[in-house]
Write a structure and sequence with these properties.
Layout (H helix, E strand, L loop, with lengths): L1 H23 L11 E4 L1 H10 L28 E4 L11 E12 L2 E5 L2 E8 L2 E11 L4 E15 L10 E18 L5 E20 L2 E21 L4 E12 L2 E5 L5 E4 L2 E12 L1
Length: 277
Amino acid sequence: MKKFFTLSAAIVFGSCGIVNSLVAQEVRPAIGANDGYFVSAAEQTQNQTLTQNRIPGKLTGTTTSLDDVAQQGTPGNYGYHSDSCGQCCCGPSRYFSSFAGWNFLEDLEFEQNGQAAGTLETRDGYAFGFASGRYLNPCWRGELELAYRNNSIDDNNPPATFANSTSGRIENFALMTNVYRDFHVGQLTPYVGGGLGLSYVDLEAFVNGNEIYAHDWVFAYQFIAGASLRTGCRSSLFAEYRYFGTADFEATNATSGEVADSNYLAHNLLFGLRLTR
C-alpha cells in the first residue's frame, strides 16, 4: 500500500512538473476560441494594453490573442480567460460551489465488546453541501466544505442487541478540508481529490418504544472523482462520485444502557455549480 501511494504521488507531481516546465519556457499549445484557461497577474497587466485594440471574441495588440500568451504567474493569483466572452475574466482565484445528490449509506455493522452485534440497514437518502475554495496553481486547488447527509432506517434486519427497530433516521454533518488535482482538457476538466475533517453522526431510532441514539463527533475522510464543464466566464457545472467514511461512533440503548460501535460509510453521486470570482 505504501508503494502504491508513493508511485501515485510521483505520477501526479510529475505531471504537474511538466506543466510548470512549459510555463517556464513560455510554451503553450493552441486552444480553441471557446476554451478557458488560467491567466496570471502578469498577464492581467498586459491585458490592459491588449484590450485597447479588442475586437469581439479576440484581443489584439502585441499578440493576436491571449491564447498566444504563455502561462506565467504566482500561485494564488490565477483567474480564468474565455475568448467566447469577448473579454478577459481575470481576478482573484477564489470560487464558491454548491452541490446535491444521492446518498447510499452502507449497512451499519455494529460491534459490542469486539463481537458482532447485528446489522442496521438504511434506505437510500440524499446529500447536499457548500464549499469555498481557492486555486493554488493551474494543477491544484483547495477548499473548505460543509456537507449534510440524511437516511431513514430500514427495519428489515435490525441489530439483535437493539431488538426490533421500527423507525428512525440517521443524519451526518461533515466539515471537510479538500484538495483536488485538475486535468484541463479544453472546457472539460476531469479531477480527483480527497479530504479530511470532522463528522457529527446523529442517530435516532425507536425500538418497541425505546430510544436508540448516537450523538458523536468522529474523524472523517473522503475520496472524490469527477469532471466539470465550463458554461461561462465564471461558471461551471460538475458531476462527481464520492466515497465518504468515518471512524467508529457509539450508539446507545437508552433503556438498557448497552453500547455498540459502528462506522459510517457512504457512496455519493452529486451534481453542482461552481462560481469563480
